[in-house]
Amino acid sequence: MCVWQNLMLIYQDLSDAQKKFIRRLFSAAFLFVTVFFAAYAVYYAALAVDTWRDMKRTDAFQIAVSGEGSVFAVPDIAALSIGVRSQSKLLKDAQSDNTEKYNAVVAFLKSNGVEEKDIKTSYYNVNPQYQYDNRPCPLGFLPCPPRDPPVIAGYEITSTLQVKVRNLDSVGTILDGAVSSGANEVHGPSFTIDDKTTYKDEAKKIAVENARASAKKLFKNLGVRIVRVAGFSESGGYPPIYYPRTMEAFGKGGDMAAPAPSIEPGENEVRVMVNVIYEVR
What is the domain extent for residue 159? Predict the structure, then answer.
């Protein structure tokens, strides 16, 4: 009590300006303490609400539901694999033959409407051809006499192009002309879609709708309700339409054994599978 009386006496002796400063100082301190405890109370109130929500979710569980969607589209790209394989005893002769035929094939492709961006070298390999000592072991000699080490008897060079043909009506002509220009390995065509974004988005939309419909039916039968979507994933694509074409279709020297068949690209199916995880109660 004496301390408080002494403080009051000291306060009475202060000037009006000093008293005004003291009052402001106490007001600021009171405001600070009030705000601090209010923030403290709000924080713990929010924490209590989150804890209450978590407790309410203790009876929740997750169910995964799948949905599939597909659309059909006409392919606009024919993918071809065109190769040139050359063999010779001398490496320079094999290289010369392969380069000449390879350049002729590329020149033919460009002259028939295939853009440079759609012609890509995908494979080039120089493979020595070895001759092994396969002499039979003479009777009565065990073990057999040492054999001579293998020697290089020649070279094989393979160069392969990956080609996109955008004018599907010219696929047969491209195949025939490539072989006539020197290609002796042809695979394809496989028909694909150049830009699948629009078709995939459409298929995904259908897949999500199918998943949602399945979920509603399932949850109704189970007697549960959706709390929230807890996860989502998607997968899928489309199988290209592939037409194998072997060298048996061609005669010797690159001449066609028969007229080129009519190649129909048909339709490709763009398929998307989605998996939606629901939290239910």
Answer: 77-192
